[in-house]
Each structure stands twice: as C-alpha cells, then as structure tokens.
Specification:
The chain is of the alpha/beta class. The protein has 8 helices and 10 strands. The protein has a 6-stranded mixed beta sheet. The protein has a two-stranded antiparallel ribbon with strand order 3-4. Strands 5-6 form a two-stranded antiparallel ribbon. Helix 2 runs antiparallel to helix 3, helix 3 runs antiparallel to helix 4 and helix 3 runs antiparallel to helix 7. The longest helix is centred in the middle third of the chain and has 16 residues.
Amino acid sequence: MKVGIMQPYFLPYIGYWQLMNAVDKYVIYDDVNFIKGGWINRNRILVNGQPHYFNVPMLGASPNKLINEVQVNNDPHLQRKNLCILKNAYSKAPYFSEVYPLVEQILGFQAENIAQYIINSFVTINKYLSIDTELIVSSTLNKDTGLRAQDKVIAICKLLNADQYYNAIGGQHLYFSEEFIKHKIQLYFVKSDPIKYKQYNNDFQDNLSILDVMMFNSVERVKYFLTRYTLLS
C-alpha cells in the first residue's frame, strides 16, 4: 500500500499531481496550521508571457488557525473577477474550451473553508485526468494529534496499513529512511523530470499551476507528464 501525505495546495504544479497519482491513498493534511505566503491559497499562471500570482480570496486567514478553519470569501463579484483573469490569460490556448468549464466548477464552488475548496478542485481535476487515487482528509482520521512531523506521518502510514510512503523531493531533509524502516515502511521521494511544452510563442515558464499544463496540452499528454519522474529512496 503506497501512501502520500501533503497539505492542500491551490491548483498546484504538476509535481504535486505526480505524487498524488503515484500512490494508492493520498492524505490531505487539512488539520495543520495555515501558512501565509505559501501555496495553500495561491499559485502562478501565465499572463503576458510571465508568471503571475493567482489567489483564492479568503476571510480571516491566520497562521494561528488550522487550514480547515480558514474561510473562503464566496463573494460572486470576486469569483467573476478571477474567472475573467483566467479567461483573458488562456482564451487562445489550444485546450481552453475543454479546461475552462472545469475552472468555472472549481472557482464557483461554495466552500466553508479553504480545505474543502481545494479538495473539490482535486476531485474535479482528478476526474478529468483519470486519477483514481483515494483521497483521505486528515481531520477524519482517528489519530494521535499530539505527534509531530515525522512521527505523525509514520503514525498515519501505520493507520492506513502502508508499507510504502511517497513524499515530494523537498522533504528529503525532513524524513529519514531509518525511522520508517523501523516500522516496516519504505520511504521514497518523487523527483520530477524536466517537463517542457509550448506556451503560445513565449519563452517557457516552468512550475506554473496545473491549469497552465492543462490549457496547453491534451489529456493524454498531461497523463504522460504525470509519469515523468524519478523515484528516489
């Protein structure tokens, strides 16, 4: 059983989806503290050939709150404004007609908190890309909330009967194979291969939101990109 665990990020770059696609069960860490200035409520899209931050409007965001305690601002005016930004950015992209309806579903979703809002986006995009990984919300698990960092991850893996734990490459300094092996769990890191595609006639801008990948590539091509990584132990 392969398990991955990550905080919910808003329409993240393709490496996040590679990790989600690589495992059997994917735990969405919704009951850890919100990080301001991170990727939970924002990502980057292509505007006039350059990366441009695109944000989810929120109410009362604070690092003193858990992710599932931060509210989304469901003001229809703000939703229309964001839709307009994305439409202007990608209306001439080759797969705009296929992807834009998904964008409308995602941005128009009425969520009580940012975690629910992002989980809905995962479900929507996973269906489009035929990703069948089981999504599990961390706050629904009966776990020891007193544990921290690596110990907490190992406990969740054991709770889900995992014998393999996959993490993004950025976690190499956080997790150590020796500790996982003690619990009969093999630790792996997903390192994305270089991925490049045509973005209009501009110089390529990498690591943008999955929306950028989907706007410029067919479903089949995106699914191929999901397999382009190296697994490190």
